Automatic annotation (TrEMBL):
Record protein name field: Methionine aminopeptidase
The species this protein was found in: Paenibacillus aquistagni
Chain positions recorded as a divalent metal cation 1 binding sites: 94, 105, 232
Alphabetic keyword roster: Aminopeptidase, Hydrolase, Metal-binding, Protease
Keyword match Metal-binding: yes
Keyword Nucleotide-binding part of the UniProt annotation: no
């Protein structure tokens, strides 16, 4: 069932999203060679709790950490660990905050030190696809319009586009209907309506976009171990267009 949010509920989601954005702003200067994702997990949980919220992911379907991580060939959902990040890595940090009954959700890929030009261009393209997807999140469009914009740009850019993991609606639950795939057909799928709140999250790869799941039941990697990046915002659908909730 698709749950539409009232204006007051969207404002609460905006506060949850702002907390997530504050966490990402805190991380940008400190994600450098030598830091571990366990360090990042601790800092993010402290920040979320200082703001009167709780980490959305901790305890969600048995997940044990406050952030989801994805380094290099990991697509999504890896646990933080004690291995120092190295020069030239890329790492996605996915953060959720639950505040006054509502979730905010945003994942972002960070370069660790200096990365190759190929990775810089991959990150730029994936971020651009997120913005193109958000542009389609308007009243009267359909979910397929978002996915089509992302997939078409991936194809134009020559990158793999992960199809096995998707975006989703957000609200009182972290994952709500409808699913928001990073592929689709124009004019197909559920109608986009005022009051929807959608997590749009394209994932691009340098090679094969297919995934396999590790034995922990969470960590997803590319089948050919090619690099994957991801950019995600939570967006509210309003009469005035899409409103990004996970920004400062």
């Amino acid at each position: 069932m698709i749950i539409l949010k009232s204006d007051a509920e969207i404002e609460l989601m905006r506060e949850a999203g702002r907390i997530v954005a504050e966490c990402h702003a805190m991380l940008e200067p400190i994600i450098q060679p030598g830091i571990t994702t366990l360090d990042i997990d601790r800092l993010v949980e402290e920040k979320i709790r200082e703001r009167g919220a709780v980490p959305s992911f901790k305890g969600h379907q048995g997940f044990t950490a406050s952030i989801c991580t994805a380094k290099n060939d990991v697509i999504c959902h890896a646990f933080p660990d004690s291995h120092p990040l190295a020069e030239g890595d890329v790492v996605t940090i996915d953060i959720g905050a639950f505040y006054k009954g509502f979730h905010g959700d945003s994942g972002w890929t960070y370069a660790v030190g200096h990365v190759s030009q190929d990775l810089e261009e991959l990150m730029k393209a994936c971020h651009q696809s997120l913005l193109l997807g958000i542009e389609q999140a308007i009243v009267g469009n359909r979910i397929g319009d978002i996915g089509y914009a992302i997939e078409h740009f991936a194809q134009q850019s020559g990158y793999g586009n992960v199809r096995e993991f998707t975006g989703h609606a957000v609200g009182r639950e972290l994952w709500e209907e409808p699913t928001v795939p990073n592929y689709g057909s124009k004019g197909k799928g559920p109608r986009i309506k005022k009051g929807m709140a959608l997590a749009i999250e394209p994932m691009f790869t340098l090679g094969d976009a297919r995934a396999y799941l590790e034995d922990d039941g969470w960590t997803a990697r590319t089948v050919d171990h090619s690099i994957c990046v991801q950019f995600e915002h939570t967006v509210a659908i309003t009469d005035d267009g899409p409103r990004i909730l996970t920004v400062l």
